[in-house]
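Appendix B. One record, verbatim.
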Amino acid sequence: MNHATRWGLRPVINAAGTMTTLGASRVDPAVRAVVDDMLGRFVLMSDLQRAASGVIAAATGAEAGYVTSSSSAAMALACAAAITGDDLAAIEALPATAAPARIGIMVSHMVNYGAPVAQAIAASGAVVVPLGTAALCETWHLRAALTQGLVAVVHVVSHHCIREGELPLPLMIEIAHAQGVPVIVDMASEYDLTEAVALGADVAIWSGHKFLGGPTSGIVAGRRAMIRAMLLQNQGLGRLMKAGKEAVAGAIAALEAWAERDHAAAAARETAIVAAWQRDLAGLPGVALRLCPDWTGNPITRLELALTPATAGLHAWELAARALAGQPAVALRDDLAMHELLHLDPCNLTPDEAPLVSARIRALLAAAHDAQDGGRTGWVAEKRARGTVSIPWLEQGDA
């Protein structure tokens, strides 16, 4: 039975990537089978987390591991662990702290992943300490903050971050560890499972439901003392963010499936999809195509569309919005739409779905050219319109 159809949900063709707003990824069939099996059983959650710790440690090289409800929850709990250690009274008191608990993060890493990363840090009770400026963080910025007192430092690996002038992770770890301060690395959407741990990160965080293809979860690897302190947060803030047995079992299964995955075959499939898009979209007026390797080094190459609105007939954000409004919805990656750039991501598409993406783009641009109904207002007007958040199904009484 197609429950999406039964519940009146529009089907989505996802050319945007592993976006939480789209359900992140297709869960691997082997993972779904494990989750289904676990949902019919009772287990001691401590036993399940013990099993998860072993699998995570083997996959990452860390001393121990932990599965949380999401990677943002993992960030809050890692920061909480840095504040309290294994002090149960302090754990129960959070987010209140006996003294200010300062956690540093580079200004260029204070990004929004759907919510501000600084909010996830502050949810632990921490005082967020910005390091450096928007496009420059030097060693003295970190050393000065450490001198004034930090309980941890956070480093984010994300395409949202400003990479110009950032403090490299190995140097950040070196400086922080010299003062006995742990480093927490948020790398939710990254393929690499070992480098941060090998460099000495005290905690490294991945999303279980993005490239790993599991259910919603956060996968944490790190030093045994930090993982222990994170687990103890279940007597406090962790209760608000608890992962069910399906999430923990699914994360274990996703890591096991990732280890068995034919990565070369997956890369070949994605390369073929992008090549087909290049052929399908070649020669469109006002659209320049370029292969775009992943910003953070993941083994993904996307197709970039650079629009000239006067010729193409639509601004990039208009094209993305109209594609999403269709039936089925076609989601395009529009992070850089203000620069008239869109990206097509192949990682979540089947070979049958991929041609529908380029066909929708061609059809929308042709319709806009005929109707002359696009490209009339610029990014300022679009940004102004986005200043009001709407939830139509609530506001229109459809609930």
